[in-house]
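Backbone-to-sequence.
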């Protein structure tokens, strides 16, 4: 098919693509042609977009044809009647895959649904008005969720019930990769406008949770069945039995124990998670097993979970530190509780207890979806605990306080800020000073960077635009780069942030330029280093930010400055200071969202960024940010390079199994 036959321009000047529906599928699709906009007025650009649209269409056509003809003709009792059916069950009834069925239903403009289980979010009367939608020249849409526009945290409510997924493209991507996704936007069915909006990273949804209307599936089947001719039925090859590569899970009636269930759960799900996420889930299983015993799954009821809730309230806070303090590295939960009672130790916060209960609820929700149990005994108990305690659940990053002017005076009065260097030992070595002591706090408070994304910066991420604007390029291009900053992760999900918007560029503040940041970067390059902070050790679970966080939060803020270590003031607090200062500049919401890394790129959408004139404008915004800081000395580059060498000598003495470039 030539370009002239399928690409045409309308009176508006925009090019459209005409997609032909094969004759054998016209009844099912409901039309002979489908017209889609490329969103482009430039012919060359339109051809590129049209080629991608055509490729997507042909993949969809192939998926439509991979169905069991005999099952289409015979139908299934599962598809009869009103109500909803899991997408996976409907696909099985039609002899196809969930991915193929989802693509076919999307073409027919059917809707996808999910059952909310005590989800936290905003109920809005008009989701189109409540959220800001920005369409670029390619027809891509960026959706910005402004919490303040929807009433802030106080306006959030919990919801249980059926929700329609707003963007079917998210469903297609989810079932195609067979990986869970964090979804933020839903519609309150059957309204086309009333919505329910969750904050980033969204509610974790997997293909097993997806539901569709029986009437939509049956209507599609009937349309397909009407096209089947006797010859097609006669020539249809019987479906060959496929080898069973799945493990049949025992049902409650077979007496499956919680320990056996744990092994199956982790085997089926751990492949989707990072190491720290797997450990977090393992810890939840371990807590239940140690405190409640290896019970039969079918006998775990609401009363059991309430008893478990009472037990976890006795666990000491910061249990890893408790094990270290009392030299009991292998202490289990029962021993930890005994230590807490004996020494009157602080117990788990209500938020920590809720996270534990929410995690257990997600575990049992999976068991319910797998029909291992008839209902989730932990459903809603986390929220109930919060209500009973008299507090409301807030987003993780809202549990941090910004640093006060007094705090900032203390922090930026450290010797490395007042002199540009640290103190040497009697032998002329740097033992208590590293260059990241100087630069990390400045990068955070002037650029809003998260701890790990700053700690893992490469020198190649420090760039200068063609117009001469220096900027930081936050990206995940690097084997050792991770998106695991805890402060921006939902407490109720095991899924790390993986958003296009968290990868962004931020112009460099003039204060850092004045303090010698660019010269220091050049010196690092000349010395043969590749990373901005080669002195930081890499941690497989937490990345380079783990070591930096231990220094700043515990040793610096806690021990040196005496700021209480109650979780309210941490490195992440400087991101709050940045957000407040950014808000004072009267900057448009979309630019604030981009600079903070909060823009929501949904569906098949990528965040846009013009690194030309747009960067110059954002440079003005960044440079307008000011704080009441004490005088800071120019960074001593020579001492900085020596401090790195001294650190690496110490680092070399600790053997590691995997190395990344310094």
């Amino acid at each position: 098919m030539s370009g002239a036959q399928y690409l045409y321009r309308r009176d508006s000047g925009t090019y459209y693509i005409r997609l032909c529906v094969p004759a054998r599928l016209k009844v099912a699709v409901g039309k002979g042609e489908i017209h889609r906009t490329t969103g482009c007025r430039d012919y060359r650009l339109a051809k590129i977009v049209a080629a991608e649209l055509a490729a997507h269409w042909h993949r969809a056509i192939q998926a439509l044809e991979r169905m069991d003809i005999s099952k289409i003709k015979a139908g299934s009792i599962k598809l009869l009647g009103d109500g909803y059916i899991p997408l996976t069950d409907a696909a099985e009834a039609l002899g196809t895959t969930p991915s193929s069925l989802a693509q076919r239903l999307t073409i027919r403009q059917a809707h996808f649904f999910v059952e909310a289980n005590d989800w936290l979010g905003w109920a809005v009367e008009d989701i189109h008005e409540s959220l800001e939608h920005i369409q670029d020249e390619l027809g891509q849409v960026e959706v910005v969720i402004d919490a303040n526009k929807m009433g802030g945290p106080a306006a959030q409510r919990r919801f249980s019930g059926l929700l329609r997924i707003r963007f079917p493209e998210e469903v297609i991507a989810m079932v195609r990769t067979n990986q869970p996704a964090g979804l933020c936007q839903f519609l309150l069915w059957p309204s086309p406008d009333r919505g329910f909006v969750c904050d980033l990273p969204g509610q974790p949804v997997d293909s097993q949770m997806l539901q569709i209307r029986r009437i939509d599936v049956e209507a599609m089947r009937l349309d397909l069945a009407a096209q089947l001719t006797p010859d097609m039925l006669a020539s249809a090859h019987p479906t060959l039995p496929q080898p069973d590569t799945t493990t049949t899970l025992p049902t409650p009636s077979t007496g499956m124990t919680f320990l056996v269930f744990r092994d199956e759960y982790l085997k089926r799900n751990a492949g989707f998670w990072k190491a720290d996420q797997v450990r977090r889930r393992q810890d939840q299983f371990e807590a239940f097993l140690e405190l409640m015993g290896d019970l039969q799954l079918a006998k775990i009821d609401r009363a059991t979970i309430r008893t478990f809730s009472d037990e976890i309230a006795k666990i000491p806070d910061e249990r890893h530190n408790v094990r270290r303090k009392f030299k009991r590295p292998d202490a289990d939960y029962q021993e930890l509780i005994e230590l807490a009672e004996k020494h009157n130790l602080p117990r788990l916060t209500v938020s920590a207890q809720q996270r534990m209960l929410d995690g257990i609820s997600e575990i049992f929700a999976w068991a319910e979806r797998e029909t291992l149990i008839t209902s989730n005994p932990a459903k809603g108990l986390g929220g109930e605990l919060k209500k009973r305690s008299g507090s409301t659940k807030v987003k993780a990053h809202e549990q941090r306080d910004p640093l006060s002017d007094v705090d900032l005076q203390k922090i930026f009065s450290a010797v490395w800020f007042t002199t540009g260097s640290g103190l040497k030992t009697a032998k002329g070595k740097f033992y208590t000073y590293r260059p990241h002591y100087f630069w990390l706090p400045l990068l955070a408070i002037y650029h809003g960077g998260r701890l790990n994304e700053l700690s893992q910066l490469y020198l190649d991420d420090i760039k200068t635009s063609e117009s001469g604007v220096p900027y930081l390029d936050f990206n995940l291009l690097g084997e050792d780069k991770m998106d695991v900053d805890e402060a921006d992760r939902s407490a109720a999900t095991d899924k790390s942030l993986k958003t296009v918007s968290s990868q962004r560029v931020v112009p460099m503040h003039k204060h850092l330029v004045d303090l010698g940041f660019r010269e220091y970067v050049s010196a690092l390059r000349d010395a043969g280093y590749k990373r901005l902070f080669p002195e930081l050790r890499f941690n497989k679970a937490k990345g380079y930010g783990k070591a930096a966080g231990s220094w700043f939060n515990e040793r610096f803020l806690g021990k040196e400055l005496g700021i209480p270590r109650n979780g309210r003031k941490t490195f992440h607090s400087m991101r709050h200071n940045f957000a407040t200062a950014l808000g004072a500049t009267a900057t448009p919401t979309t630019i604030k969202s981009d600079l903070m890394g909060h823009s929501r790129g949904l569906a098949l959408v990528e965040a846009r960024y013009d690194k030309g004139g747009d960067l110059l404008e954002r440079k003005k915004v960044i440079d307008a940010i000011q704080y009441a800081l004490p005088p800071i000395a120019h960074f001593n580059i020579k001492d900085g390079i020596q401090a790195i060498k001294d650190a690496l000598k110490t680092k070399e003495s600790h053997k590691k199994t995997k190395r990344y470039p310094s």
